[in-house]
Structures are given as structure tokens and as C-alpha cells.
Design brief:
The chain has 14 helices and 11 strands. It is of the alpha+beta class and about 325 residues long. The chain is elongated, with a radius of gyration of 28 Å.
């Protein structure tokens, strides 16, 4: 209890939390008797009074004469949580209203927002993956700004793939020279991503459906990281057009020896369900993903093994010892 500090997490003072703990552990007490506790000893009565008022305001302490009694916390704290949730929803809706107001009354590049993401570049990327409803299109040259970073799957990418979001990604060809980056790309492909490579990818772009895009750039000082958020506009249409141009001329991502010679545990599980005669719907339920994701994974396996039908896929997988 003392280590978790749950009441302080709700915004109450440390003194209020200590007073509540004392009343729970020792039973009803007067304000003066609370000062017998080591955690409250020596505090002026007015400080204790303010702490008790904090507790009373949310119903955690009841007064009977001069005695204070702790109340069961669950219903009261849940009410506080619900109030905070309402406030969060109102804040989000207010942000949307203010954003529309800004766009309606700001001339020039009001459809472009520059965000300094040097400290947390993942947050705005996570927004793309979590808000996508149908598809994400991406151009990738790897991490930019903020020093050297290990290649890794973008936050929220695998969850979005498992939700059935369609991914098409054009990687810069230098990914072929980086085993770790290639491994990361293959892990996404195994989950349903379509991937291609091209020698001269110029920038990092994420396009969320047709609603907005995020362009990652190095900060002016060359050390930080900025993200440019592009709302619906001719510029967004242009970025989508740039992606589609790259996609048409890019080459499929090579499968690599590790992918050719062995199947991932997820692929083996999928193949075992197929060989058992399960439908896509049943497989999706077993794997906890969408039917669309199952279909994409099967199509990817067929592409890897050169199988035109699911029967041929079973034969090829069996020959390779994947079943």
C-alpha cells in the first residue's frame, strides 16, 4: 500500500494518504490522535485538517462529532476514475474543436503541423498505427535524427497488422545490407505486411488511410527529430502519389535464407490448422486475429513457397518439414 501510493496517483497529497492509511489500520481517530502516527507526527493541525478535507471531498472519510472514520474505497475511487475519464473525453473533444477553429481561421500552411518529437518520436507513429482503419502506406529509410538507434518494429505496427490493417511498405535498399533491419522487416512480412525495396527512397513517410500523413525529418540543428503532420490537402495527395510511384517501380523484398529454409512458429501453427481442415474463420478465432489477416498470411506463405493453391501450399510445406 505504502509503496503503490494509490491516492497520490489520484492527485491527493502524501499527508492525505498517510491519514487514510492510519484510519484504516487503527480505526476511528480524532484529528489530534492522528499525530501519534510516525508518518504524521509533528505536523501542524491545520495541515492535517487540509488533508482530511481532501479525503472528505471524495468520500473517503466520514465525520462523527470530532471523530474521523475511513470509508470503503472502491465505490468512491471508481467515481473519481469515471470523473477523470469524462474530463479526458471533454479535453479530447475540446482539442478537436480548437483544431478545427485553428484550421478555419489560419491562413497559409494550416494543413501542416511541425511537431518536435526529439524526446518521444514513437508517440506520433503510434497514432498512425492505432488510428488506421483500413491501410497504412509507408516509405522507410530507417531512423532519422537523435543519434544511432537500433532497427525495430514501429510501435503499434504488429497490433495493427493483427487487427487486419493492410500494410504496404517501400524500404530503402540499404536495408539489404543491415541484417537486423532485414530481420525486422521480415518479421512484419510474416504477419501480413507487403514489402518492397528501392535504391533511392528519399524520406520517411507514414500515411494513415487517406486522412493524414507523418513525415519524419532531422531537426535544423542536425541532432533532434521533427515530425511534419500533413492533414487532407493537395500536399497529402502528393505524398500519396509519391508513395504509389515508388510502389510501382520497387522490387519485392527478398525472402532471405532464414525465411526460405524455415517457418516461424506462427507460420507452422497456421499451417497445422490448415492441414487439419479448419476454415479461415476458425483459424482466425484460434489465433486471435481477423479473417483478413489469416488470408493475407496464407497468401504470403503461398508466395514464399511458389504455391498456386492451398493444397499445393500443404504439399510444399510438408516437403520442407514445416508440418
Amino acid at each position: 500500500m505504502r509503496d503503490l501510493r494509490p491516492l497520490q496517483a489520484l492527485g491527493l497529497s502524501a499527508t492525505a494518504e498517510a491519514a487514510y492509511v492510519a484510519l484504516v489500520e487503527q480505526g476511528p481517530r480524532t484529528l489530534a490522535e492522528l499525530t501519534d502516527r510516525p508518518t504524521l507526527a509533528g505536523l501542524p493541525l491545520e495541515v492535517l485538517q487540509r488533508a482530511v478535507t481532501e479525503l472528505s471531498d471524495i468520500g473517503l472519510v466520514a465525520r462523527t462529532g470530532d471523530r474521523l472514520t475511513a470509508q470503503p474505497p472502491r465505490a468512491m475511487v471508481e467515481a473519481v476514475a469515471e470523473q477523470r475519464a469524462r474530463e479526458a473525453r471533454i479535453a479530447y473533444e475540446s482539442a478537436m474543436v480548437l483544431s478545427r477553429f485553428w484550421l478555419d481561421h489560419t491562413a497559409g500552411s494550416s494543413y501542416v503541423e511541425v511537431v518536435d518529437t526529439s524526446g518521444h518520436p514513437e508517440a506520433i507513429q503510434l497514432r498512425v498505427h492505432s488510428e488506421a482503419m483500413e491501410q497504412v502506406r509507408a516509405l522507410s529509410i530507417g531512423p532519422v535524427g537523435g543519434g544511432e538507434r537500433e532497427p525495430e518494429v514501429g510501435p503499434g505496427t504488429l497490433d495493427a497488422l493483427d487487427r487486419g490493417i493492410a500494410y504496404r511498405v517501400v524500404y530503402s535498399a540499404n536495408i539489404l545490407q543491415d541484417p537486423k533491419a532485414l530481420e525486422v522487416a521480415h518479421s512484419c512480412v510474416e504477419r501480413g505486411e507487403q514489402a518492397r525495396v528501392f535504391p533511392d527512397v528519399a524520406l520517411n513517410v507514414l500515411v494513415c488511410d487517406d486522412r493524414f500523413a507523418v513525415v519524419s525529418v532531422t531537426a535544423p540543428d542536425g541532432r533532434g527529430h521533427h515530425s511534419v503532420v500533413v492533414q487532407p490537402s493537395g500536399l497529402l495527395d502528393g505524398l500519396i502519389g509519391v508513395f504509389e510511384s515508388y510502389w510501382r517501380i520497387a522490387a519485392p523484398l527478398p525472402a532471405g535464407e532464414s525465411v526460405k529454409s524455415e517457418a516461424s512458429p506462427e507460420s507452422r501453427q497456421l499451417l497445422s490448422y490448415l492441414s487439419a481442415g479448419l476454415t479461415d474463420e476458425s483459424i482466425a478465432r484460434e489465433l486471435g486475429v481477423s479473417e483478413r489477416t489469416v488470408a493475407r498470411r496464407i497468401a504470403r506463405l503461398q508466395e514464399m513457397l511458389g504455391a498456386q493453391t492451398r493444397f499445393q501450399l500443404g504439399v510444399q510445406a510438408s516437403r520442407r518439414g514445416w508440418l
